Amino acid sequence: MKNHDSAFARSPEPLLDLAALRADTPGVERVVHFNNAGSGLMARPVLQAMLDHLELEATIGGYEAAAARAAETADFYTSLAELLGTGPGNIAYAASATHAYTKALSAIDFRPGDVVLTTRNDFISNQIAFLALRKRHGVQIVHAPDHPDGSGVDVDAMAALMRAHRPRLVAATHVPTNSGLVQPVAEIGKHCRELDLLYLVDACQSVGQYPLDVEEIGCDLLTATCRKFLRGPRGSGFLYVSDRALAAGYEPLFIDMHGARWTAPGAYTPVATAARFEEWEFPYATVLGCAAAVRYALRVGLEPVAQRTPALAGRLRGQLAEIPGVRTLERGPARAALVTFTIEGWQARPFKAALDARGVNSALSYREFAQYDFTDKEVEWCLRLSPHYYNTDDEVEAVVAAVAELAGSAR
């Protein structure tokens, strides 16, 4: 992935019909939505799939509606399998990326002294989960150092730690929530395969933004949400489980009647697929909305999205960096569509409120979200802007103008 920050005077639009994409996105008529790393604007087909199913539930009943839409529900697994380069049986629905992540962690029989090897840029909830494992099970947490060039974890150093500690789990976040950093997850995966180590990847901010291939990444487990760059509904996510992990018998700590069969009074047998990580009760309208969102992303095409979206962010980042009093925070050669910056003379909430008032959607990040990264950068908070492929260069100009106005008013 290239650094697009200065590669384009105007953002490229290869193979994308921007007018049609925006016509499919009713939210662009109301706001400049630069909070896709929080929750992307849903496209009309996604919204319609959910409304249609809720109407059907109200008309014929919830169980009956689920039975009537079984084929459409199955497309959730088929479409995600196509997106990730795997099979439908390797996908499990989850209520969120964190739900998927904790389900995956619960499948690992941690013992005192086991090592979790991770990075300094892993997501806050993942870091807290590791600390909870240390508190309850005596697990050791080892953080691999960052590379001096700012490209994320030092893969060679991480590989050396793999050989020294033989960790029970290796974990990495592809794109952290607190910056546009893109970590070398496939390089980490090569070492995990060579050393036969269990590997868990958080792809929450990269799925829907970049093409992903779980075989290329080399992971056993991968988690993500549907609400961000996939533009699905909130309260949805998924877990990928490799054939290797399924064959090894990994299953969640609390498995229910959907994920297992009660084969005798004192025995149960997990189902053969990743469905063992699901619960019986499903929000079917949400699942159908997710399936529609993934199909929409596949129709748009991840290759052109992977060009346009980081390029828009690069142009935004470059222009923000020229504003007096603004400091952009991204480092490294590859940068995703998350732009983070600080601004002199403003506190966090009033600054975001001022952008809200100008019709710009954004998000705040605080030091507690990224203890290592923000300590290194010596910041207490930053504002995060995250455009997507349906955003425009004119919107970039409008956001830059708004930030420049606010920066000037503080001086």
Please name the defining characteristics of this protein.
four-stranded antiparallel sheet, seven-stranded mixed sheet, alpha/beta, 15 helices, Aspartate Aminotransferase, domain 1, 15% strand, single chain, Aspartate Aminotransferase, domain 2, 411 residues
Describe the structure.
The chain has 411 residues and is an alpha/beta fold. The protein has helices at residues 18-23, 44-60, 62-68, 70-84, 97-106, 124-137, 155-165, 185-195, 214-217, 243-247, 284-300, 302-321, 348-357, 371-377, 393-409; strands at residues 32-33, 91-94, 115-119, 140-144, 169-173, 199-202, 221-225, 237-241, 260-264, 267-270, 326-328, 339-343, 360-361, 363-366, 381-385. It folds into two domains: 18-30 and 301-409, Aspartate Aminotransferase, domain 1, CATH 3.90.1150.10; 46-299, Type I PLP-dependent aspartate aminotransferase-like (Major domain) (Aspartate Aminotransferase, domain 2), CATH 3.40.640. 48% of the residues are buried. The model has no long low-confidence stretch (mean pLDDT 95).
